[in-house]
Amino acid sequence: MITTAKRLDTVEEYYFSSKLREVRQLMSEGKSIINMGIGSPDLSPSKAVIEAVAAAIQDENGHGYQSYQGLPEMRQAMADFYRDQFGVEVNPNNEILPLMGSKEGIMHISLAFLNEGDHVLIPNPGYPTYTSVTNLVQAVPVYYDLKEENGWEPDFEALEKLDLSKVKIMWLGYPHMPTGARGSLALFEKLVAFAKKHNILLINDNPYSFVLNDNPMSLLQVEGAKDVALELNSLSKTFNMAGWRVGMVLGNPEIIDAVLKVKSNMDSGMYYGIQKGAIAALKCDKSWFEDQNKIYRRRRELTEKLAEKLNCKVYKEGVGLFVWAKLPEGIESAEKFIDEILYEKHIFITPGTIFGSNGEGYIRFSLCVKEEKVQEAIDRF
Question: Model-level pTM?
């Protein structure tokens, strides 16, 4: 029998991959499941995006292999977007690398910078992929606490007490997933100073900055951030293009070049038509964000009512694509709580535990659900 690589012993199948099989089984049995678990936008990209892709399909030169670095005009559109939205200047020639979704960037960066035994600072709670990729490259996850009493921000005194001698990378993501904590430029300044002090590569995962957020920020707004930091961003949430797989990593040329060395050995470029669609998306004006947020605001209001129906306390300061809520006193297991709701009311909600031990006692609702479905979920109680 052919045995698997030992690295597979360090990871499990992604939670949503296995849980959604369970959900599909219930649906096949005739259950009407309302899926409030995953953050896959159900809204469409703009008309301009669809038209750009449709036109590109007819381009006889658009069907071959593409550059590993993407079309020059797409990198320029990404640079223009960062300048216009964040006031950050980046060189499109060597400080931006387009990605097939920012999730692949987590793997590329880890492969480029981590050796076996290197330590990686990972937020708890935080995106589970930071841990799984760290394990796959045989580095060591070191968790730093994010807690509600600290506004879901790092405790720098606690960080300084850790053994940081082997730490190579620190992951963060503001607006924060899963809690929706906004972060601040003051926090980013502290993080950049911390990374410089300890010679750590700091990476901000920033796909939620325009969803229900009146003050989008970038880590690269901090003076000197490029010396030690990268930022990942994505068109998935901002422009409803999750399945298109378009992301980017931004930083100084030396670091970007290291990531490119990995990426160029992993794929053969992004499809031409998708790049043309991405360019059109990045040129959307302010009205695009306003219209999207009108929809998400109404959904959030209803979702908060659902959470309160479950006697949960909503984290009202949160932004982004999710509602984070604390379970009622006396509930011992978030996973048991959501399973009871799944099997009794046929509503799928995410338990906070999949994001780390500090997620116990919390649940997360996705806003990628139409208003009438959220109202139906409320009515089921």
Answer: 0.93
